[in-house]
Design a protein that fits this description.
By secondary structure, this protein is an alpha+beta fold. The protein has one domain (2-102). Helix content is 35%, strand content 17%. The mean pLDDT is 94.
Amino acid sequence: MVQRQLLDAIEDGYGPVLSVFLDDPRRDETVEQVILRVCRGAGILNGKIQISSVGTLVEAGFELVHDDSDGMHETHHDVVFPNTTDIQWCQAFVDSFSEPRPNPAK
């Protein structure tokens, strides 16, 4: 599935990227509150979400680029893959995230 999404992004002219939403906690905000705020603010409609961190993605070899073009929410970022759709990179992306959990904004 990740490899197909990556190929679609390339075919659509975006390059080897997949979208994520992220933000830092505000003062006195818990991680759970950040997750809820980002899901609500970005209008994430999925019933389930998966959690990662910038550090985990960067350590796995990915670059994150802020992208609020075309009206995207301010927390939208692209995870940039090396110029490849190699299954090992797709697996590294999947391995960087938690198991699916309910979207708290639903």
